[in-house]
Amino acid sequence: MLADGQTPGGTATEPVKRYTDVAIALHWLLALSLLAAFCVGLYMADLKLSPTRIRLFNWHKWAGISILVLSAVRLGWRLTHRPPEEPAYLPAWQKRLAGAVHQVLYLLFFLVPIAGWAHSSAAGFPVVWFGIIHLPDLVGPDKQLAETLTDVHAALAYTMAGLVALHVAGALQHRFILKDNIVQRMLPGSRPQGSGEGRP
Amino acid sequence: MMRRKLHVLLLPLACAVAGLPVRAASGVAAPALVAAQSEISFVSHQMGVPIDGRFRKFDAQVQFDPKAPQKAHFVIDVDVTSVSLPTSDAMEEVVKPAWFNSKNFPAAQFVSSAVRPTDKGHYEISGQLTIKGQSQDVVVPVTLTQSGGVTTASGEMVLHRLAFAIGDGEWKDTSVVADNVEVKFHLALTGIAPL
């Protein structure tokens, strides 16, 4: 059993404490899903009615509901599996900023799909997950509300994109400028290298 | 000018008066559709998502004697241009040649050929349905109920849109828009003798 993100065989002098395999898998699966859903969402919004538009809208909705479900699983996992501690050498403000970004991102993982789902309900299109599972409508049909919700959905999605950019910038800085091991904790397949080098 | 106006005003009155003795002689008024209490709606499916639509204008000519249902005759005319869908882009799309081609085919029609009673108040009406110039033989199960002098004919049936070339070209893909379209009707008729 892995506990607290500890990998087995961590006998080297400075083993990298990684996130659990489940946490890593969920992180990257969601990263790809969010990126795909965001790009499809951007592209489809102004398409004229066509089979392609209908396909993309439905795929986008299926992806959104999948993201919602995976995020619930991920949050459950996160709350029951303590992530590796932030290294002590990080300044307090950086830890706080990274923590705040993570918390708001988690919030948005739920709010963005829920706003999209509510928009779909208000527009009079129930969401049928993968074309099979009929999901309940979150609100009744209401054109005015549908327009408001599409703006809310978009604003929240852009906020998330901005925070993801910040998150990625932080990761790249650690990886390529500070050259520490922080990013390695979330990289798939990276066995513990034990290299504590590159610490400031 | 005045005379012409008068003429127009009098015409329906004259028709009504002329019609009266005929109806009185047969003892039964000709059945008539109560449009405000009638509905023809349908549900299509986009990747599993039900899309509700309906026709706002239609009419029915009905001959129906409950004592001799086999002799009954139904003609339903639907104004295809009166189609209503949930979004404005769907409304713009559905009149195009690929869909209803409403400009060239503004009317759809059902004409019955045989009526078979299946149970008390239940009938199977066979006939020909023509939409977009394409005719198909259909069998429609119809239930008749009566209340306060109004007879309601209701039922539902599944139509295959591609049999009528509705949704042609790029829209033929049934993984996007299903071939099956569920049609529901609810026709309120006056002037039908008690069942």
Q: Can you characterise this structure?
A:
- With 200 residues, chain A is mainly α.
- Helix content of chain A is 60%, strand content 2%.
- Chain A has a single domain, classed as Fumarate Reductase Cytochrome B subunit.
- Chain A has helices at 21-44, 51-80, 92-122, 143-177, and strands at 128-129, 133-134.
- In chain A, a hairpin with a 3-residue loop joins strand 1 (128-129) and strand 2 (133-134).
- In chain A, helix 2 crosses helix 3 (92-122).
- Chain A is elongated and about 55 Å long.
- Residues 1-13 and 194-200 of chain A have low confidence and may be disordered.
- With 195 residues, chain B is of the alpha+beta class.
- Chain B has 2 domains: 1-27, no CATH class; 31-190, Lipid/polyisoprenoid-binding, YceI-like (Lipocalin, Beta Barrel), CATH 2.40.128.
- Chain B is 16% helix and 47% strand.
- In chain B, strands 1, 2, 3, 4, 5, 6, 7, 8, 9, 10 and 11 form an 11-stranded antiparallel beta sheet that branches.
- The model of chain B is unreliable at 11-27 (pLDDT under 50).
- The A-B interface holds A 48-51, 54-55, 58, 123-128, 130-132, 134, 141 and B 46-52, 86-87, 89-90, 92-93, 170-171, 173, 176-177.
The ordered H/E elements of chain B are: HEEEEEEHEEEEE
Query: Main beta sheet of chain A, described?
Result: 2 strands, antiparallel
**CATH fold category name of chain A:** Fumarate Reductase Cytochrome B subunit
What Rg of chain A do the Cα atoms give?
Answer: 20 Å
Number of helices, where a helix is a run of at least 4 consecutive DSSP H or I residues of chain A: 4
Q: From the coordinates shown, what is the CATH architecture of the largest domain in chain B? A: Beta Barrel
Spans of chain A of 5+ residues with little confidence (pLDDT < 50)? 1-13, 194-200
Strand order of the largest sheet of chain A: 1-2
Number of contiguous helices of chain B: 2
> What is the CATH class designation of the largest domain in chain B?
Mainly Beta
User: Residue ranges of chain B: pLDDT <50 for 5 or more in a row?
Assistant: 11-27
CATH superfamily of the largest domain in chain B: Lipid/polyisoprenoid-binding, YceI-like
Instruction: Report the principal-axis shape of chain A.
Output: elongated
Strand content of chain B: over 45%
Average pLDDT taken over every residue of chain A: 88
Return the CATH class of chain A.
Mainly Alpha
Number of DSSP-assigned strands of chain A: 2
